[in-house]
Amino acid sequence: MLNSFKTPQRIALIGGASEIGNAVLRSLPQDGIEEVIRFDRQTSGFDAAIENARREVVSSMFTKDLDVAIIAIGALGNQESTTEEANLLRVIEVNYLATAHLLYLIASKMVTQGHGKILVISSFAQERPRIDNFAYGSTKAAIDFYARGLSHKLKNSGVEIKILRPGFVLTRMTQGMKPAPFSISAEQAGKIGAKLLQGRSTIAYAPTILRYVAIIFRNLPEIIFRRLG
Description:
Order of helices and strands: EHEHHEHEHEEEHEHH
CATH superfamily: NAD(P)-binding Rossmann-like Domain
Oligomer: single chain
Number of domains: 1
Strand order of the largest sheet: 2-1-3-4-5-8
Helix content: 40-55%
Distance between the termini: 47 Å
CATH architecture: 3-Layer(aba) Sandwich
Strand content: 15-25%
CATH class: Alpha Beta
Largest sheet: 6 strands, parallel
Radius of gyration: 17 Å
Structural class: alpha/beta
Number of strands: 8
């Protein structure tokens, strides 16, 4: 349960090795936190691609009330290898199927307990398909769409779904890639994610200027957008 200061006491991070997810945790008020549960392949052996593993992890999270869940799993994939079926399926399986299933399972449990917040890490890449990341972007567009729809469905349930749309974040996942304009650190993205969890907004871009860049992206004529891409 939230304490008397309305700060979370129990938090789960799915994708415990995620630099953005951990940065969000560090940016939340620390005084009231009693327990943080992390799930990832390295420390707990959790494989998000396995359906039963997802069910077991969510069940273990709700032995007591859970205030906040951060879903920070993801696969960037190798865009140059999108013709390879295994690579493409992995990106779809982790970024959409596994994430949507986890979101559904966690939200259902939170509805039963009557409260809770879920942070889903989407991406600026979901705004419009680009030749260098369309496979990844398509999965982020799908989970973004699902999260928004579920958020509307759960209105007045006591459960809130928050969507963070980071741009290019300087992490291990993007190491070796050419940084895009408005690149930020995981710590900067984490601060925006924490503010989103504590505020009333449903969606936030990281950095916030991408909110306005997104409007331009969506409205550029296709012929101009392709030239830029």
